[in-house]
Amino acid sequence: MSAALIAGVIASSISSGTSLIYATLGEIVGERAGIVNLGLEGIMLVGAATGFAVTARTGDPDVGLAAAALAGAGVNLIFAWLVVGRRANQLATGLCLMFFGAGLSALIGRPFVGTLITGLPRLRLPGLGAGAAARLASYDILVYLAAPTAVLVWWLLFRTRWGLVVRAVGEDPAVAYAAGRRPAAAQYQALALAGLLGGVAGAHLSLALTLTWAEGMTAGRGFIAIALVIFARWNPLWAIAGALLFGGAEALQLQLQAAGADVSPFLMSMIPYLLTFVVLILWGWNRQSAAPAALGRTWFGVE
Amino acid sequence: MARIPVLLAAWAALGLFAAGPAAAQDKPALTVGAIYVGSVNDYGYNRAMKDGLEEMKKAIPGLTLIEAENVPETAESERIMEGMIQQGAKLIFATSFGHQQFAFNLAKTHPDVAFEHAGGWMQAANFGNFFGATQTAWYPMGVAAGKMTRSNTLGFVVGVPIGYAIGNVNAFEMGARSVNPQAVTRVVVTGGWADKAKEAAAANALIDQGADVVTMHVDSPSTIIQVAEQRSAYSIGFQSIEARQLAPNGWLTGLGFTWGPFMTATARAVIAGTFKPAMVRQGLGQGMMGVAPFGKAVPADVRELVTASADKVAKGFNPFTGPVTDNTGAIRIKEGESWGGADMGKFDWYVEGVIGKAK
Q1: Which of A14, A85, B156, B221 has the smallest set of CB atoms within 10 Å of its CB?
Q2: What superfamily in CATH does domain B28-133+259-282 come from?
Q3: Are B253 and B291 in contact (CB under 8 A)?
Q4: Is 50 exceeded by the pLDDT of residue B19?
Q5: What value of ipTM does the predicted structure carry?
Q6: In degrees, to the nearest 5, what angle opens at C-alpha A123 toward C-alphas A119 and A127?
Q7: How far is CA B135 from its chain centroid?
Q8: Where are the domains of chain B?
Q9: Domain B134-256+291-355 class in CATH
Q10: Which domains are assigned to chain A?
Q11: Cα torsion at B312, B318, B322, B324 (round to 10°)?
């Protein structure tokens, strides 16, 4: 376990964990309002494609980032209308959203495949050369904002009146309604915020991590984020730990390969998913369920 | 009075003359279908295929080309190729390794259509296989890397560790060792031909472990080359020589495919009815592969060495001639034996000097 390997793993886990953090935060907000969004993968793809396309067109990655967030919010509002307005089944609609997002992102991104863009600028600490140490200290703005965003989301959910209403709706919409709140409005707002964060998560992949767009480039990260919500026990602060853990596992298996570990590369690539498995099993041992009580259930209103 | 038959004869002759080319323009000389596994704008594998097909189209007037991009390596590809055959395609190019079985299935049900698959081994009466003999061509790339490295560590990102890809790594390391006995190659496998985020992380991992020359066998070299450029490492490209635009400082050289001549010859054979499927593997100097232009970082003496090495390979030099030891010390190719083109898919071991596990 050399210093180079450890530094490399930490740097890589922070880079690849960032998009997972934003995606997990978005899903937490949505699930706290009682809505499971299985289409997070589609939202991330739309965010990645839109961010890339707008950046390629305008030359400004900040504009691309904003466009990605808005696109993610827009698509999630379609989901919100179906699930809250038309009371469709959340799981099925979420999966449809995933396919829709995959197709829409392919359509948006097609004319821009292969375009070279200037991505989000890296804020580098001067004087550190180009080794692993320098990589530990130079990231784009989204990485630096990830932890503060998690704190912001925690504050929104647990320290504001709006957050209280959202959580109440997620626990029991009928009671929230009886108290004079509008559950539908709260769910729409929560899902809009979730879409914003999901779009940003996708944009980080295309505007900072790889600087390209390819169909399906999220490669299942949306679903990992959904699992991480459970790992984080629906608490935004724990999302940071979960995302870093998964990002770290993925970085670790690649670093171990580069260092020459005597294990088959196929087994190595299983490491992140096995780790997720283990963590979920260990976490599930504690019977006390932290999930919002009305998660996944459609509220049909008071008749 | 005698003029009338002459005039009639002249009119008839003119009519035949005019009708001839007009009749030929009524239907295309040949309809060709092609499926790509990714986008043609990838500076890589698919771009090279597209360039070859465009060359074929230009060379044969009246040829119609139907293409489909982003065709996955699943049964979906069979459906898409079937659609092309329904549109009249008589020659299908299945350009990605994973399309093989599905194209082969269609070859059985459509014996009147010719199929050419890139990179596999299956053959039938109407199914042929073609690819560049990439393995030996990687040897001069290794020479370039071995000469330019300062840390004596080279990095290789492999998408899917099929025998052909492992053979590429082996030839690369052997080339490097031939000019730099201390050079080692570290290998990272991403598990897919086009997982961009993993490729970026893999390139970073190799550079973290000390590699200062990075190369790859994935569909598109763009992400890896960009990461190498960002971290001031040298890069050697693969699949398409256009990728050198991505690394103005770090580009050393690369290997590209020049599919045009083979594709044109195949299309002509199908039109003439003389299509004979075969297992075609052409190396450097035989028309399917070319060495990319050198980057500005490469000094003249290294350029000469690499060009000389490429010529040697083009004239038939085979680095896989015994004795060859693998990276656990066992002898894999005995003295006096050599592995030719047909054996390139059999690699499941890395040569001495490669740090990695093949399976």
Answers
A1: A85
A2: Response regulator (3.40.50.2300)
A3: yes
A4: no
A5: 0.80
A6: 130
A7: 11
A8: 28-133+259-282, 134-256+291-355
A9: alpha beta
A10: 13-119+138-284 (1.10.3470)
A11: 90
Please work out, in degrees rounded to the nearest 5, the angle formed at the alpha carbon of residue A286 by the alpha carbons of A281 and A288. Answer: 130
Six token digits for residue B15: 């009519």
Q: How high is the pLDDT of residue A88?
A: 93
In the predicted structure, residue B166 carries a pLDDT above the cut 80: yes
Percent of chain A residues topping a pLDDT of 90: 58
Please indicate whether the domains covering B28-133+259-282 and B134-256+291-355 agree at the CATH topology level. Answer: yes
Which residues in chain B have Cβ-Cβ distances shorter than 8 Å to A16? Answer: 197, 201
Strands (E), B125-277: 127-132, 153-158, 184-189, 213-217, 234-237, 251-257
DSSP secondary structure code for residue B39 in this structure = -
Residue whose token pair is 């530990």: A136
Partner-chain residue, chosen from A131, A251, A264, that has the shortest CB–CB distance to B357: A264
**pLDDT > 50? residue A53:** yes
B3 in contact with A at a CB cutoff of 8 Å?
Answer: no
Q: Which residues of A touch B209 (CB under 8 A)?
A: 4-5, 8, 255, 258-259
pLDDT greater than 80 at residue A11: yes
pLDDT tens-place string over residues A229-281: 988 889 999 999 989 988 888 888 888 888 888 888 888 888 888 887 887 78
Q: Which residues of B touch A219 (CB under 8 A)?
A: 195, 197-198
